[in-house]
Design a protein that fits this description.
alpha+beta, OB fold (Dihydrolipoamide Acetyltransferase, E2P), binds adenosine-5'-triphosphate
């Protein structure tokens, strides 16, 4: 492997257990190439922070190997790993100004006064906090504090930045604005980011690649669109975005298309036969936005009729729960402008493209 091809971070079969047999990270392997924005996404307690702490060097793996730029990190202390850290609670030094907080890393690295000043100036410029140098943390808003924490982490120019739920203390509007800023900073610096979050929108909107974790294992890894459109399991389909997960009684393969028999006499045709053998299919996933209201009298495959059981208007779109058979309540998302004449109790015709029906094995 040439120097340019060496990944910034590699986890090879990394396992962590705390006292005895409680395995919280189980045989995780992961490669993060230089300059990539990778998110580790999963529900509370799935092992995200533990994984990040092992990369940072705060915990040693129980087994497996962590390599940074190709070098095994066993026994290498955190401060020798050339890694920057940003956490949820900012952790700024309260008695230091913004300038002093951001200068901390470069100084610790032994950079000269002029190098440090340049590093601070450039880091504050990246996070758009020029002019705030002499403020103390308590004189900053939450967003400004988090930007200062980011500037402090990038000022020493680490090769990798690890971020653990850095936006979770901010309100929604600010969080959304910060997503864009974080991504811009990452691209501008060409720095490798490993970003831990339980917020799927955050992960989907910023990442080049998302690693979905569940109970200490990697459930799926891929580009955000891949994971959204082709979840490999019910867990991923359910965790990422909204989905209808319908039990499949029988699947029959014919010419690369699948006929799925569901409960209540329903039958759907799916385009994606994928890698799953027909006999193993037990569920199918249909995203609510992929179910369309059909014109009255429409005909063709995957046409369902049902009664609106629940309706929630969310402003731009509405969510309908449509009773399409005695066993199946289908969640449907429609633009509000298409709602005319539809209310609870209305009968609607629904159409699902065969390519939008994803068969799953479990
Ligand atoms: N020092 C410890 N000793 C024992 N168990 C621990 C320790 N640290 C974490 N755990 C356990 O390991 C599991 C994973 O914890 P971790 O902090 O990695 O989860 P997480 O995915 O970051 O969750 P969250 O989204 O809530 O931050 C949890 O069940 C937790 O209780
Ligand atoms: Mg955590």
């Amino acid at each position: 492997m040439s120097a340019a091809e060496i990944a910034d971070i590699e986890l090879v079969g990394v396992t962590k257990s705390y006292g005895g047999n409680v395995v919280v990270v189980d045989n995780v392997s992961l490669t993060v190439p230089r300059g990539e924005f990778v998110s580790i996404l999963g529900p509370s307690g799935c092992g995200k922070t533990t994984t990040l702490n092992m990369i940072a060097g705060f915990h040693e793996p129980s087994s497996g190997e962590i390599r940074i730029r190709g070098r095994n990190q066993v026994g290498v202390p955190p401060e020798k790993r050339n890694i920057g850290l940003v956490f949820q609670n900012y952790a700024l030094f309260p008695h230091m100004t913004v300038q002093e907080n951001v200068a901390f890393g470069p100084k610790m690295k032994g950079q000269s006064k002029s190098e440090t000043e340049e590093a601070v100036r450039s880091a504050l410029k990246s996070v758009r906090l020029e002019g705030y140098e002499s403020r103390y943390p308590k004189e900053l808003s939450g967003g400004q504090q988090q930007r200062t924490a980011l500037a402090r982490a990038i000022a020493p120019r680490p090769s990798v930045l690890l971020l653990d739920e850095p936006l979770s203390n901010l309100d929604l509007k600010l969080r959304e604005a910060m997503r864009i800023e974080l991504k811009e900073v990452q691209q501008q610096l060409g720095m490798t980011f490993v970003y831990v979050t339980h917020d799927q929108e955050e992960a989907m909107s910023m990442s080049d690649r998302v690693v979905v974790m569940s109970d200490g294992v990697v459930a799926q890894e891929g580009r955000p669109s891949e994971i959204y459109q082709n979840p490999v399991s019910a867990f991923v389909a359910d965790f990422i975005g909204k989905s209808n997960l319908l039990p499949v009684k029988q699947a029959r393969d014919h010419d690369g298309r699948l006929t799925l028999t569901l409960g209540g006499g329903l039958s759907l045709v799916s385009e994606r036969s994928g890698d799953i053998p027909a006999n193993d299919i037990t569920l199918c996933c249909i995203r609510p936005e992929n179910v369309q209201l059909a014109r009255k009298g429409a005909s063709g495959e995957n046409l369902l009729t049902g009664r609106v059981d629940k309706l929630v208007n969310l402003g731009a779109h509405a969510e309908l729960w449509v009773d399409v058979s005695k066993d199946c309540l289908l969640k449907v998302q429609v633009p509000v402008r298409r709602l005319q004449g539809i209310e609870i109790g209305s009968h609607v015709d629904l159409l699902i493209e065969s390519a939008a029906i994803q068969p799953l094995a479990h």
